[in-house]
Design goal:
It is built from 19 helices and 3 strands. It is mostly helical.
């Protein structure tokens, strides 16, 4: 769909450029009638024959750069870049910048577009130089800084990111605390790989100071405590994470289990886990509780807990774990669980979309002759077993 829109917009932009150039020629010759050159007819012939790329090449060659056509050149270059034709976009924007008649603002706009062309082409050094020039000119500062941030993140230059975000905050008039915290965490990761533990601790403190709600530095500190054989300290840090963001619990459950196992207080973790499960029935927490019950009690208790939970919240991961547990149970218990699995499977099959549109990917449980999403006819087919 987007490609069709671009194909429609490009001829319009090209025709607009032709009209601007024609007006420019008429101004130069006063009110004299100005007949279009044969090349214009050639360009329109390409448009009529649905060959927009050839038409644009003709119009760009004929289009003179003046106050009235600069915007047309910028629009054409932008369209080329969005279509992935970065070389053509670069040529147009470089040609614009080389024109001495451009105003200060027009040149800045062309520099911004050329910098974005270079970014799209992966020429980050050239793009960086242009955005730094714009920052020095105090024009398009926000876009220049945002693009610099993208470049530095791509290059993993986190110190440059911190410097850039400090310059960007007053421009956007809002604190960018979360990003700043993650930049310090990235620096801490680099220090860890280099074995610079003190520097890592310093970066993590700065990350927490930047955004106290960011759980990443706390998790890194907890893992440092685990490595230093300080499970009690690690548990405190992990509980701080839960207080800030309980959606993060599945990510730290293994760390919790390691620490509570080390201090021989697994029943205490089971109590915490029961409370978290009441708040969110995440399959990762359910499987964690299953493993914990299995370790504290036995396989039978774990299987019965998981089976009861599957009655309320069926899942493929839970079903797989039930099958694994079944092999370790007595014959009678295993038979009962197998019978119970039938309901789980029926529920999962009922919820699984059996049909999919081959054009837009829309999924449905029943056959539609016309796709409700993209309105295509006869595009919905039943999925194969491998696709499902």
């Amino acid at each position: 769909m987007q490609e069709i829109i671009w194909l429609l917009l490009l001829p319009v932009a090209a025709a607009s450029g032709w009209w601007m150039a024609l007006r420019s020629q008429q101004k130069k010759h006063g009110n004299q009638s100005c007949q279009p050159a044969p090349a214009y007819f050639k360009g329109f012939n390409y448009l009529i024959n649905e060959e927009p790329d050839k038409a644009i090449d003709v119009f760009v060659q004929l289009l003179e750069v003046d106050d009235e056509t600069v915007e047309t050149h910028l629009a054409l270059g932008s369209l080329f870049r969005r279509r992935g034709e970065t070389e053509r976009a670069i040529r147009i924007h470089q040609n614009l910048i080389a024109r001495p008649a451009l105003s200060h603002e027009q040149r800045a706009q062309a520099l911004l577009e050329l910098g974005m062309d270079y970014m799209r082409a992966g020429l980050y050094d050239r793009a960086e130089n242009l955005f730094l020039e714009l920052r020095g000119m105090q024009l398009h500062v926000r876009k220049a800084l945002e693009n610099l941030l993208i470049i530095y993140q791509q290059e993993r230059d986190w110190k440059a990111c911190l410097e850039t975000i400090s310059a960007l905050e007053p421009v956007v008039n809002e604190p960018l605390c979360l990003a700043r915290s993650h930049y310090y965490c990235e620096l801490a990761e680099q220090a860890l790989r280099k074995g610079q533990r003190e520097k890592m601790e310093q970066y993590l403190k700065q990350a927490i100071a930047a955004d106290g709600n960011c759980v990443r530095p706390l998790h890194m500190q907890a893992r440092m405590a685990i490595q230093a054989n300080q499970p009690e300290n690690a548990i405190k840090l992990l509980h701080h994470i839960v207080e800030r963001d309980n959606d993060y619990v599945p990510e730290i459950l293994a760390d919790f289990a390691q620490c509570y196992r080390q201090i021989r207080r697994l029943p205490e973790l089971k109590n915490h886990l029961s409370r978290w499960l009441e708040q969110r029935a995440d399959v990762s927490l359910v499987l964690g509780m299953t493993d914990l019950i299995r370790e504290i009690e036995d396989e039978g208790a774990a299987a019965h807990f998981l089976s009861a939970h599957m009655q309320r919240h069926p899942s493929l991961k839970g079903l797989l774990r039930l099958i694994e547990l079944k092999e370790e149970l007595p014959q009678a218990d295993a038979q009962n669980i197998l019978w119970g699995m039938q309901d789980h499977l029926r529920h999962l099959l009922a919820e699984r979309p059996a049909y999919q549109c081959g054009k837009c990917g829309f999924e449905a449980n029943t056959l539609h002759w016309q796709c409700p999403s993209c309105r295509s006819w006869s595009s919905i087919r039943r999925k194969t077993e491998s696709e499902e």
